[in-house]
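We emphasize that the prediction below concerns an isolated chain of 432 residues; any contacts that depend on oligomerization or on bound cofactors are therefore not represented. The input was used exactly as deposited, without trimming of termini.
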Amino acid sequence: MAEQSIPEARTSETTPEEAVSENALSRDGISRRKLLGTAGATGLVLGAAGGAVGYATAPSEATPLSSLGSDRAMFHGKHQPGITEGLQACGHLVAFDLAAGAGRKEATALLRRWSATAERLMNGEAAAHDDTDVARDAGPSSLTLTFGFGHSFFSRTGLEKQRPVSLDPLPDFSSDHLDKTRSNGDLWVQIGADDALVAFHALRAVQKDAGSAARIRWQMNGFNRTPGATAHPMTARNLMGQLDGTRNPKPTESDFDKRIFVPSSGSTDPAWMANGSYAVVRRIRMLLDDWEKLSLKTQENVIGRRKSNGAPLSGGSETTAMDLEKTDAQGEYVVPINAHARITRPDQNGGAAILRRPFSYHDGFDADGVPDAGLLFVCWQADPLRGFVPLQRKLDRGDALSKYIRHEASGLFAVPGGAAQGEYVGQRLLEG
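Result of the prediction step, given as a token string:
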């Protein structure tokens, strides 16, 4: 688990009006601000005319949606949603394989359906057909749906010449104990929301849309702290209790796009990947029984940071630059040579950087009461061979944390740029 941090979490202190101010108009041209402002008197309607009008209608005495429910991500844009937004409270990762006999034609129709459904659900509307009503009365709740293509997708659809070199299979790592049935896949969908029912509603809609064109290969459920659960925005904690994601690259940094997204020109990637990114997905089990037996000091030495506030052991606050040369009275490095935070620093890996956007998971206990829990690790980069791979190779060679984690599933997916108005995700590939 490389150390880079997550985008800063949202809080519930934002008013509903502030939370949606950037979302100018709904599809029928009515301001969401105006809708929220009048919901107490007339009921809130989120839905296009002729679509699911009344899907989120509130009773006349109801108050407007809270900021948590009214937050909305945009489906159309330069990049797909679910990459640069803050962490969501609930998530589902699901991979599909195209059905026997299905090819490019069926894949094209499926991406059209998925894109149309994603746009509707992210707007807080019902699915176009056979909606389950699971999310009725809820707002968009920061729902995002993100779509990607696996290595095998291109041979299944006769598009081998359009397969990026960057999608070549990841190398083997010594920490891998991979279950192939829960790895890879033709198609990948990432779903995130701040409400569990909204997230499940999207998962079910995506599955139903797949129809006879594709079948589920694997599916994983995750969670994060709910926005607003802390007194102020802060880096999230993982199930080991550590702040997880302190050094995430930030969109405000001048080289952010260069590190995270495929450029629109001058790239060796095919043109259809312009403004896209590559997602590495790993199911990383945390050996919590072993970890929790360690003293606080030992845990902090494994990570290289204070558990309480994420500050480097060399001193300062969470965002203070780590002093790798600082020693104690015995001449030992204050940040141990094999500390996770030391090993994953970009300046120790030729500048390699990834954008982490994970979920925690817990899938119950085994017969001995050992928790099956850990991290659904999702990281984004313009080139996995310059992002994830060198970092993971470095970790393989001596990360103190590797003793307490196990990589059990893996996938690499090409995630194309966002769909423009009137387009569907992947259109430049499938119709190019």
